[in-house]
Amino acid sequence: MLKPLLALLLSTALALPAHALDLAREEVRGFIDEMVRDHGFERPEVEALLREADIKQPILDAISRPAERVVPWYEYRERFLTPTRIQQGMDFLAEHRDRLARIRDENMVTAILGILGVETAYGRITGRYRVLDALATLAFDYPPRSPFFRSELREFLILAREESVDPLTALGSYAGAMGAPQFISSSYRRYAVDADGDGRRDLWANWDDVIDSVANYLHMHGWRDGEQVVVPATLADENLDRFDLSKIELNETVRSLRAKGVLFQTDLPPEAPAMLIVGEGKSRPQYRVGFNNFHTITRYNRSALYAMAVNDLGAAVHHAANPQAAVPHLMKDERR
């Protein structure tokens, strides 16, 4: 009886989901020294805060999990283009119409609607981990990217001081992304906006701040007001060897794509940067041409599927709320 009991106790101990961060570790001591030396924190303050951080195995499991099957475009699209998500977007648009109206570029409004819908279902799914735990876990117990997450932990502590965020209660994703727009700490500090002038940049509860912060992020990453994002396309010859699809890059122009037999409509000039996008439909490829603003959306998440879903969800919300209005960036159902 004793051996099975000991084995059970051992397996239970190994499966513990969390343990306190050990402040005696050399790399943790070095981090504390940096916060005191370079950023004006009091040593007891940092030590007390980090003593509260838990190293959580589920966070390490989530970030170390082998990449899921790369789903085809038609499946990825269906995750977000649901009646429920579109209705949530319509409710959001109705509630925040005045703030969104201040953004004069209709295409950017569409992108913001899409980003907030894809990221967090308009604030409904913002993460269940304490940001402190997520960043401490990845900063000190995830060697492949520990320097990045250590810098994000530093940015989070500074952010908490600047914005009066409680670092012990702030929640986010397993990677430390925060609030309705899922900004990481460095992006929060760099791009968040105090839209209503209350002296704080609150991306959890202040929707004026959220909307203007996403708009600022897009502008700072090269968004061009008034320009198209993406348009449907067909190919005269579906041999893709003449296209470099290995990276998400504006590696073509309107002129060069047309010279290669890509058929699409745009009001952009021939020299405008462009890219061919290929999505997998149920029975045949789906083609689009993305322009500068499409590439800008991929700076939020470096995935063409993500940027297409953002565009399509935002356009679907826009169209559902304004069925009589022309929405040229609304794509047809592409499940075929």
UniProtKB/TrEMBL annotation:
Residues 25-314 form the Transglycosylase SLT domain. CDD domains: Slt35-like. This is Transglycosylase SLT domain-containing protein. The active site is at E119. GO terms for molecular function: peptidoglycan lytic transglycosylase activity. Keywords: Signal. Pfam families: SLT_2. The keyword Lipid biosynthesis does not apply. The keyword Signal applies. PANTHER family: MEMBRANE-BOUND LYTIC MUREIN TRANSGLYCOSYLASE B. Residues 1-20 form the signal peptide. One of its GO terms (biological process) is peptidoglycan catabolic process.
